[in-house]
Amino acid sequence: MATNPILPIFPETAAVGSDNQLCIGGIEATALAKTYGTPLYVFDEQTLRSQCRSYKTEFTKRYPSVQVLYASKAFTIAPFVRIIAEEGLGLDVASGGEAAIAKAAGFPAERAYFHGNNKTADELEFALAWKIGRVVVDNFHEMKLLDGLAGKAKRKQDILLRISPGVDPHTHHKTTTGITDSKFGFTLENGQAMEAVRLAQAAKNLNLIGIHIHLGSPIYEVEPYAEGVKVIFAFIAKARDTHGLKLLEFSPGGGFPIQYTVDKAPPPLAKYAETISTAVKAACKRYKFDLPKLILEPGRAIVGRAGVALYTVGAIKDIPSIRKYVSVDGGMGDNIRPAIYGSKYEALVANRVESKEREKVTIAGKYCESGDVLIKDYKLPKVQAGDIIAIPASGAYCIAMSSNYNAVSRPAIVLVGKGKSKLWRRRETAEDQMRNEIL
Ligand SMILES: Cc1ncc(COP(=O)(O)O)c(C=O)c1O
Q1: 134-137/157-164 β-pairing
Q2: What is the SS3 assignment for 368?
Q3: What is the CATH number of the domain that holds 195?
Q4: Torsion, CA 268, CA 71, CA 228, CA 146, rounded to 10
Q5: Quick check: CB of 255 below 6 Å from ligand 1?
């Protein structure tokens, strides 16, 4: 019987099999490591699909017209985008590259929304040619550029305006976006947002159909969403009265959290769905709006729990009475979050899940930076070279933010389920890294 308190942070199918082995999707993690090598990112299909369904269900239970978009910046590869399409979600893309992956995956363009604070002319042209559903216009420069390009493409482009409502979601300062001092969106406080509505209404080739806000990520409290809705609807009502804004769609963005560590569990999804639905309905009643379509943009919450990073232990350096470093074969190149956000993770030894014998170690990466530490001062069973370390909650913003620092190749990615595994992306090679170089 599994007792390890970390297991619930792993994918839904995680279990402890015979010989004290971690299993995901019905397969031993060590067997996956042997077949595909490490570092390896393992995604559990059941968890991915059930997260998509939970978001749809929890919001549609409470609100009549809902479109959940998966925010592809959290993790985008074509085979996964196909799962998103199958589950009936839309897609938030934040670059021409993400749009190109979606297009290559056969994702329906009308369910894609284009985000970003500095979309280039090339990216916008690509999106227009693809007939993207919506562009979420972020600033005056983009509005003018898009209006011109849409005219050239003979297209009247549906848009939302991204507005920075001046609400603090109390998350890391590097992932806070909805405050006034932010590079994202039209600022509400200084009148720029109202001016944006006026200009969008006057733009010949743009069709303004809604308003978007995104406060930050991950948001472990529900109150900022209620506050954001309240603040933005006062603005939307004024924009309707002054410039005839029609509100067909409204998005409170993404930012829904997942559990990374045993001591920090987020509120349940139902609480977010209840808070947001209630706040939007109340605001619509107050300002006499028909209920707009509610657009949610979870990224991390769809993929985070489904992903597990597997590493092999290599060098171990013990500095008596100071620290014991256990180095693994990945690190900041595949998971930069601890280095840039101070993010915390749990870990276990996949080939010895339950163990009474523990020692304090620091799990370090293989990159040439002292800051390349995945988990500092952490109690693990005694490890030795060759052990497999599994870090849960690694599905979001790890592979997506990965780099080739030190010219280390990016990990392979596999999908698991019902006792089977499928390679989703092969391990990068040194040749792959050099393919654009003029040798
Ligand atoms: C506009 C927008 N929507 C959605 C998201 C997704 O956030 P999360 O992955 O925390 O749900 C982000 C993240 O940066 C974002 O900028």
Answers
A1: parallel
A2: coil
A3: 3.20.20.10
A4: -170
A5: yes
Q: Which two tokens stand for residue 286?
A: 């107050």
With a cut of 60, say whether residue 2 has pLDDT above it. Answer: no
208, β-bridge pairs = 159
Q: To test the ligand 1 pocket, which listed residue (92, 93, 114, 139) has its Cβ within 8 A of the most ligand atoms?
A: 92
Distance (Å, rounded) from C-alpha 212 to C-alpha 429?
40
Domain tally for the chain? 2
> 241: domain range?
46-299
Output the pLDDT for position 172.
74
Pocket flag, ligand 1, residue 62 (CB < 6 Å): no
Residues in the chain: 439
Same domain, 19 and 53: no
Active site residue 23: no
Using the mean position of ligand 1's atoms as its centre, give its distance from the Cα of residue 213 in Å. 10
Reading the block at residue 328, the tokens are 């693994």
Share of the chain above pLDDT 70, in %: 99
Q: Which residue, among 210, 220, 286, has the nearest Cα to 252 in the 3D structure?
A: 210
Ligand 1 center to residue 297 CA distance, Å?
Answer: 6
DSSP H or E segment with residue 99:
helix 96-104
Residue nearest to atom 12 of ligand 1 (CA): 254
Is the same domain home to 70 and 136?
yes
The catalytic residue among 23, 52, 284, 368 is 368
How is residue 370 written in tokens? 């002292």
Give, using CA atoms, the residue closest to atom 16 of ligand 1.
Answer: 214
How far lies 49's CA from each of 8, 106, 133, 134, 305, in Å?
Answer: 17, 18, 23, 25, 11
Give the distance (Å) from ligand 1 centre to CA of residue 299.
6
Alpha carbon distance 171, 257 (integer Å):
11
pLDDT digit string, tens, across residues 40-51? 999 999 999 999
Same domain (yes/no): 65, 103: yes
92 lines ligand 1 (CB under 6 A): yes
Residue with tokens 């849960």: 392
Q: Do the Cβ atoms of 313 and 389 come closer than 8 Å? A: yes
Residue 27: inside a domain: yes
